[in-house]
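Hello forum,

I keep getting stuck at the same step: I have a sequence, I want structure tokens, and every attempt I make locally crashes halfway through. Rather than fight my setup again tonight, could one of you with a working pipeline run this one for me? It's a single chain of 193 residues.
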Amino acid sequence: MFLRRSMILLSAAAALLGTAMPAQAHDALKSSNPAKNAKVEAIDQVVLEFTNAVRFPKVIVTDAAGKSFQQGEADLKGKTVTQRVTTPLPPGKYTIAYRVVSSDGHPRTGEVPFTVTPSPTPTTSPSPPPSESASPSPAAATSAPPLATPSAEPVAATSGGASSMTVWILVGVGALVVVTVFVLTGRKRRPSD
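Reply #2:
Ran it on my machine without issues. Output:
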């Protein structure tokens, strides 16, 4: 009787530990514009794209001093969150801080740093003074260097999957300890022949 009960408990513990746990992947930030650590000259909005549809977005854009630059509420369309910012942003370092609720109901937070660089000022080349024998020449044209466009470099977000797996491992180890204690105490009670 005791051996049968022990085998059932050991089988149950093995089934608990041996079952494949379903993936506990949360939705993650797939990309952002501006991208992580990007240098841009000017922006009027930030765009965050997630791996799945998210809900209840909150986006805050702050400078190094903590001053906020977001304008209005974040706009949500499926996997994409768009937040308008006050323009123009002064040159400096900024952080996009976000909080969304993933499709599995868990909150996800993260930050994307970027830098606004000063716009280059157009330079004019002085025209040479007119000479007596030369006819007037047209003024030299000014040219501004092309504006850099921010890249759509993907940004990795932290995932809570590892902590979920740790919990299951601890539960399994705890169950194994309980079964082992039960088996060992059962052997001590057994009358000897």
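The helical segments are 2-18, 161-189. If your local run keeps crashing, start a new thread with the error log.
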